[in-house]
Amino acid sequence: MTPEALAKEIRARAGDGQGRFLIALAGPPGAGKSTLSDALVHALGAGARVVPMDGFHLDDIVLNARGMRSRKGAPETFDVAGFIHLIKRLRDEDEIAIPVFDRSMELSRAAADIIQPSDRYLIVEGNYLLLNEGRWAELAPMFDLTIWIDVSLEELDRRLVDRWAYYGKSPAETRAWIDSNDMPNIRRTIENSRPADVVIRP
User: Fold this and answer.
1) Mean pLDDT of all residues in 63-84
2) How far is CA 123 from the centre of its chain?
3) What domains lie within the chain, and their CATH numbers?
């Protein structure tokens, strides 16, 4: 399904109502969530915005104190309660400041973007939006449409090698990080996520 076809589906499901329409765009690390989110915003046009889950990464200082720095990106390394609260606010409030994760600095920037009253189609993107574990499961009734990007393990691995090389990791560091952190997160996400309304296979 192309972004244009998916945008058409979203508009049809949203109908003529004036309230916000929340879309969960989920998938494992490296699936292409950010790329598809940006394409959807372009296809939907005015009133469409991306809300990234990654702004709720716990800071490295907190992860170091908890001995979890080596698992950064796992479900336990996010402020899930804060994220749930944001999703509720997106439904009820006109203007909401949202945090954004800066991968070049490996930290979240608070209130780095603003959702405006005119923003109707909110594409919430992240690894664990459909995860059926702990407090993540509370997200189940909060979205109007859920989308899952289905990508093979081999392709995910290839994309992650390219990603970490781009951010300066050596080949050895990249392989170690993917095997010890990314791949366990990928398998956990695939095995423990709820079925989505729409499945995209790039």
Assistant:
1) 95
2) 9
3) 3-200 (3.40.50.300)
| Type and span of the H or E element at 110 | strand 107-115
pLDDT confidence bin for 167, thresholds 50/70/90: confident
Token output for 30 = 């490296």
Residues 6+ apart with CB under 8 A from 200: 1, 6, 36, 147, 148, 149, 150
Amino acid sitting at position 169: K
Residues in the chain: 202
In the chain, % helix, strand, coil (3-state, to 5) comes to 50, 20, 30
Classify the phi-psi angles of 46: left when phi > 0, otherwise alpha if psi is within -120 to 50, otherwise beta: beta
Q: Which residues contact 146 (CB under 8 A, 6 or more apart)?
A: 23, 24, 26, 129, 130, 194, 196, 197, 198
Q: How far apart are CA 136 and CA 1, in angstroms?
A: 27
Confidence band, pLDDT 50/70/90 cuts, at residue 18: confident
Indicate yes or no: pTM above 0.85: yes
Is the Cα dihedral 1, 138, 19, 95 positive or negative? Answer: negative
Measure CA 195 to chain center.
Answer: 16
Nearest residue to 186 (alpha-carbon basis) of 66, 73, 23: 73
